[in-house]
Amino acid sequence: MVRAAVLSAVNAPLEITEISLPDPGPGQVGVRLAAAGVCHSDLSLSRGVLRQPVPAVLGHEGAGTVTAVGEGVTAVAPGDRVVLNWAPSCGTCHFCAKLGEPWLCLHANAATTVPYARGADGTELYPGLSTAAFAEETVVPERAVLPLPDGIPLTDAALLGCAVLTGYGAVHHCARVAPGESVAVFGVGGIGLAVLQSARIAGAERIVAVDVSEDKAELAAAAGATDFVLSSETTAKEIRALTGGWGADVAVECVGRSSTIRAAWSSTRRGGRVAVVGIGGKEDMVSFSALEVFHFARTLSGCVYGNCDPARDLPVVAAHVREGRLDLGALVTERVGLDGIADAFDAMRAGRGGRTLVVF
After folding, report:
1. Regarding beta strands 227-230 and 2-7, do their DSSP bridges make them parallel or antiparallel, or are they unpaired?
2. Structural domain tally of the chain?
3. Of 73, 111, 251, 293, which has the maximum CB count within 10 A?
4. For 75-89, what is each residue's pLDDT tens digit?
5. Distance CA 177, CA 211 (A)
């Protein structure tokens, strides 16, 4: 038996309880978690914004040590340090094999719909986003673990599994920020902080952070922001003023609301690029006039998992960490035990802090 945070139903509070894990079966890997980041996607899953069979153990941003492997597993062995991959590509579907876009894999979350453990009363439990990282241990498919490169602290490595790969990819793969460009980042949470650091790594000249909380200004500056704008109805106008009247070359939206997507769009120059990382509700509609779409010639792109191939990008990001260009610890504003997840969810709802890291 291991301790885990269980979501019994949509919108129910998480319950810290004991669950029973099976030994890894063929093609599966057992992992003892060192840490798990609390991501806004976990909040979306608990609210039903993202589909997730319940009851479930949430958590998808994690790192730990392999405890056991099932028959046929060759990628890792007991004792290996690994990062969980919440969207493992199958390598064979249309998006993976034909288009080379593994972040859109049709089967990335196949394990989400298959029970993987049982509660103390025998109830079948589902793994949140295939990984179930809000537990002392988990069992995942082999392709859902990535060997952790040397030189990265195992606890902080949890952040690589979602926030850092997503933020880094949004800048380098989706928006393709070039040296000397200006970037506006909407939302200074865990992913937003990773975007700010990644924009600095990309050589952006002006980096404007936007948030509803003025308390985020110091965090943003430490991550690389040159300017901070408090979110309001005049946000786009303020960003244009900071960029010579033209607007930012790139805007990255990390909130997932129609109002911030619209503001990000309006804050960019003619021909600018907007990457939407935040996950919004299907009823929250964004509006553009037909004329402005033509006139401004901007590009608006959804960004899934930073358009990353985790197996390719994890070693690149790890090198930035080892060489001091990317500071994982700067993303974390609180470290808690498993019992602190509920408070971390409250902080996300209120827009407080950066990433909360659950340390086991």
Report:
1. unpaired
2. 2
3. 251
4. 999 999 999 999 999
5. 21
Domain encompassing residue 252: 167-303
- Tell whether 16 and 97 lie within a shared domain: yes
Residue 9 and residue 115 in one domain: yes
Q: What is the mean pLDDT of residues 33-48?
A: 92
In this prediction, residue 349 has a pLDDT band, given cuts at 50, 70 and 90, of confident
How far is residue 292's CA from residue 298's CA, in Å, rounded to a whole number? 9
Q: How many residues does the chain have?
A: 360
Q: Mapped to the 3 state alphabet, what secondary structure does the chain carry?
A: CEEEEEECCCCCCEEEEEEECCCCCCCEEEEEEEEEEECHHHHHHHHCCCCCCCCEECCCEEEEEEEEECCCCCCCCCCCEEEECCCCCCCCCHHHHHCCCHHHCCCCCHHHHCCCEEECCCCEEEEHHHCCCCECEEEEEHHHEEECCCCCCHHHHHHHHCHHHHHHHHHHHHCCCCCCCEEEEECCCHHHHHHHHHHHHCCCCEEEEEECCHHHHHHHHHHCCCEEEECCCCHHHHHHHHCCCCCEEEEEECCCCHHHHHHHHHHEEEEEEEEECCCCCCCCCCCCCHHHHHHHCCEEEECCHHHCCHHHHHHHHHHHHHCCCCCHHHHEEEEECHHHHHHHHHHHHHCCCCEEEEEC
Q: Which two tokens stand for residue 87?
A: 């969207």
Asked if residue 38 lies in contact with residue 341, where contact means CB atoms within 8 angstroms, the answer is yes
Question: Rounded to 5 degrees, what angle do the CA atoms 341, 306, 327 make?
Answer: 65
* Averaged confidence pLDDT in the chain: 96
Degrees to nearest 5, angle at CA 315 with 159 and 38: 10
Please check whether residues 14 and 148 belong to one and the same domain: yes
CA distances from 332 to 36, 110, 191, 193, 357 (A): 11, 30, 11, 9, 7
Q: Are strands 117-119 and 14-20 parallel, antiparallel or unpaired?
A: antiparallel
